């Protein structure tokens, strides 16, 4: 997905070129049979650099499937991908593995996504970074087998679209990966996420697909980013989604002449941006637009419905510009998710269902004291069931308890958060999850601790004369910070929302 365009020049100019060791070439190793995705799936993007739990957020929102953004190399020239290009987040069970296991156990799944705006503008998208097709294919295989997933997404935009060598390497590697999957009896899909005009793909995006055909790489889904048009035109974002997808349908018909009309629509995905997109208020995707797109998507039988990103699905900044963590419009939390979630097929609607909420939803407490909230459950469908309650996310120095820990839907429990003086000052997201035979739902409580003597600032302190590269973390003024790209001399907390330092929260 795209970040603010004003960042591009800064990002591109700041990249250092350092070669890193690659992975072993693609082998014939064993492959488990991952559960295929539903024929029609809602899979919003999850911003994996925020430090939030994808499993907890999936439960809170009701999104059973997530597209995990992004995988990229740490530096240009490397053949080893990491989550967000962060050297501390390798492709391993230790990086999101437990969350992904939890999501899969609940009947959902994740779609790991390679690329994204930052990678595509800094040469760290793996096929742009690495010139060895076998190592690129091996990296893809490692993601598939580590997380037991059945689809990989390639988010290719801006500079990566124009890198013809990278485009060719990527599709050659995809073909090798698909041959490996077929030899091991494994279902595996590939999606391409591409920018679009309101009438279909531009020539650069279409060239990516033509190259895939030339290389024998199967593209299962073409996912259009139906936002950030930047054409200074008036927009009805729902109508533009429909015309963009129709244009793609017609383009695909020429690339794949043997496919039926239904099969062509079944290759299409659309990704919206809830609320105000990066261009500004002229490109605003409303809740009414979401309902229109949902009805259209069901009628056409498209494959994938998504949006960028799950963390934006709230009304925390009404009237404001595009942001990573709010939509910029008046809405309730998870409004867009609740409109799109029923799109996922192959699931059963429970006869009985319930909701979970916390009152109050936040609180501030001095270290050594306690905070309480009432966790309420309610019957939303059918009959009341027994709901087991669990709590997660409490930091060191904070003990969380629920009394009672099991209620009949419609009943309440008391959440108690007891702190010690050793708790670290800061703000924490506590998740309470209710589970019944019909499924799981969750709610969040935000706890702010003041006056604590503890410290979680284990990262090295920021130093003005030190050079930092993308993914490196520091501590400064009681917060942990992560560098998004190369920087030196820029003080954390002063570079703004689109600046180099990402605030990871209090430590």
TrEMBL record:
Residues 1-33 form the signal peptide. It catalyses: Random endo-hydrolysis of N-acetyl-beta-D-glucosaminide (1->4)-beta-linkages in chitin and chitodextrins. SMART domains: ChtBD3 (SM00495). GO terms for biological process: chitin catabolic process; polysaccharide catabolic process. Transmembrane segments: none annotated. Its EC number is 3.2.1.14. One of its GO terms (cellular component) is extracellular region. Residues 40-347 form the GH18 domain. InterPro entries: CBM5/12, CBM_sf_5/12, GH, GH18_Chitinase, Glyco_hydro18_cat. The keyword Iron does not apply. CDD domains: ChiC_BD (cd12215), GH18_PF-ChiA-like (cd06543). One of its GO terms (molecular function) is endochitinase activity. Keywords: Carbohydrate metabolism, Chitin degradation, Chitin-binding, Glycosidase, Hydrolase, Polysaccharide degradation, Signal. It is an enzyme of class 3 (hydrolase). This is chitinase.
